[in-house]
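Q: My labmate handed me this sequence with no annotations at all. I'd like to see what the chain might look like in three dimensions before we decide whether it's worth expressing. Could you predict it?
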Amino acid sequence: MEKFKIALASASLVYILLLASSVSAQNMTNQTMTGTNITNATGPAAGNGSAAAAPSGLAKVKVLEAIKSLESGDKTSALVELTAAKQVISGESDQAKMHFNEGMKAFTGGDSNGALTHLKAALNFLG
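A: Here is what I predict for the chain of 127 residues:
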């Protein structure tokens, strides 16, 4: 139980750092991209699309890392990755969010197999 409390405290700290980093990065993006509408560009005019694809890619990476951690039995790392994924998955499809949320419920309830099932399903719905 003590290890879980430490892991939860660590994950909370990571969450706070990611949130601060996200706000800082957004502010930097807003300052450097003044007058440019990259995030709403679609089709050929969107260029390589990397700005619009970043959230999906990050969500997919974090969910994949959480799956790898769970499969190896490292619940502490899984919690860190799931906490990070939670921050970037909000813009994803309803199916991805539903499976991710169910995976989080299973994980917090101690059901690693259920968490893996839903996280793998969420991964299929992430770009």
